[in-house]
Specification:
By secondary structure, the chain is α+β, with helices and mostly antiparallel strands. It is 36% helix and 20% strand. It has helices spanning 40-51, 101-104, 107-122, 130-154; strands at residues 18-20, 29-34, 55-63, 67-69, 76-78, 82-89.
């Protein structure tokens, strides 16, 4: 008999757990900012099934919103409440490294485009600044390196 694929329903969680680096925690602990409606059992279940870690303890605290003064209406406002969960894991936990914005997310190219847009707003055919010229040169060099790297991989080797 033929096996049917795609018949089982899979439910993905609609939750966002934001990791919070905290130097005061132990090697096997991690801190998360979680939604208010999530309880300790949900947090443990989420981490064990999604990330395959053994959770030994979960502690949660709800921080009240901070009071601030609205500058337009001069009324007191309160920011939304925040729930923090400190999770103890059986294995040692290492925080992930922060991504390099220029390398991973094309930060130099975005910076160059914002500078060009700003120049266009100043008037017609504004000459590029020295900083903009250096950035454009750096982008051209990166493009040349990338194109050379792909040519070497694609071209056959002749002995």
């Amino acid at each position: 008999m033929a096996q049917r694929f795609g018949s089982a329903k899979i439910y993905f969680p609609n939750l966002v757990f934001k990791i919070i680096p905290d130097s005061r925690l132990g090697k096997n602990q991690a801190a998360f900012r979680v939604p208010l409606q999530v309880n300790k059992l949900d947090i443990k279940d989420y981490l064990t099934h999604i990330y395959n870690v053994t959770v030994t303890d979960v502690r949660t605290t709800v921080f009240p919103g901070k009071l601030s003064l609205n500058q337009y209406t001069a009324q007191k406002e309160r920011s939304p409440r925040v729930k923090k969960a400190i999770v103890t894991i059986k294995e040692q936990f290492d925080y992930p490294q922060e991504p390099d914005v220029n390398k991973d997310f094309q930060g130099e190219q975005i910076e160059y485009q914002t500078m060009r847009r700003a120049n266009k707003l100043k008037g017609w055919r504004i000459r590029p600044s020295l900083q903009m010229k250096k950035l454009a040169q750096k982008l051209r060099e990166n493009d040349e390196e990338n194109s050379r790297g792909t040519d070497k991989k694609d071209s056959p080797k002749i002995n």
